[in-house]
Amino acid sequence: MIPASVPDLAKPVLLVVDDDHMIRTLLAESLGMHGYQVETATNAQEMDGVLARCAVSLILLDVMMPGEDGLSVCRRLARTGAPPVVMLSALGDEPDRILGLEIGASHYLSKPCSPREILATVRAALRAREMQDAGDSRAFGFLGWRVDFAAHELFDPDGTLIDLTDGEFAVLRAFVERPRRVLARDALLEAARGPDTDAFDRAIDVQVSRLRRKLRSHDDEIIRTIRNEGYCFVPRVVRL
User: Fold this and answer.
1) Quick one: which of 63, 193, 69 has its CA closest to 121?
2) What is the pLDDT, as a whole number, of residue 42?
3) For 44, 161, 175, 208, which has the most beta carbons within 10 A of its beta carbon?
4) Whole-structure pTM over 0.85, yes or no?
């Protein structure tokens, strides 16, 4: 049932669309505790009603629903410039995740997923949309490297384009925007939340290790491990 509460305009509004009452309730309570206004809907028709009366910032969308299923809903929303969609599904195989992302979802989470993982994904999706809306065209340099966040490009000192996964690029962004500061694994985990990451802290160690290999440097230390604390991006960063 759709709540009749009046949205708090100071809070981002999230819309949970799921036919499972327990899941809707748990998500609404968990996300509400972290400062979000949460609306709920049991199906696509109710979702359309909420979207008509609320300025929704993000949609958490179940795939397997009666009536119009989540994939159809996501495809329809992608054509209308709707808010970012995080898909939730018990169908967690790679082809299912790829299909969800290809038709317009910003993230795809496999059920069951922890409240921590969902919260991190919501924050990452909202942050990405804010930067997109702001037309972020910032470029930065360090030790001869150049990274362009708008174009999603990283060039080495020789001008060679370096291929990064979405997760590696997100971790690099977290480092570049906070140079010479110790970043805990939790902060990097939140920054790197995406389709090629998982919910465990150890995944961040893997992402950082891969990023280190790609940020090859003969003489300069770029990413330093701070024992029992996290990682620090060592070079001086300049805006280009």
Assistant:
1) 193
2) 93
3) 175
4) no
Q: Name the more confident of 102 and 10.
A: 102
Mean pLDDT of 152-172: 87
Radius of gyration of the chain (CA): 19
One-letter-per-residue 3-state SS of the chain: CCCCCCCCCCCCEEEEECCCHHHHHHHHHHHHCCCCEEEEECCHHHHHHHHHHCCCCEEEEECCCCCCCHHHHHHHHHCCCCCCEEEEECCCCHHHHHHHHHCCCCEEEECCCCHHHHHHHHHHHHHHHHHHHCCCCCEEEECCEEEECCCCEEECCCCCECCCCHHHHHHHHHHHHCCCCEECHHHHHHHCCCCCCCCCHHHHHHHHHHHHHHCCCCCCCCEEEECCCEEEECCCCEEC
Q: Which residue has the tokens 């109710």?
A: 46
**Distance in angstroms (rounded) separating the CA atoms of residues 211 and 182:** 17
pLDDT in the model for residue 111: 81
- The pLDDT of residue 59: 93
Q: Which of 175, 176, 188 has its CA nearest to residue 141? A: 176
| Cβ density class 110-149: b for 16+ within 10 Å, e for less | beeeeeebbbbbbbbbbebbeeeeeeeeeebbbbebebeb
> Kindly report the CA angle at 87 between 185 and 177, in degrees rounded to 5?
35
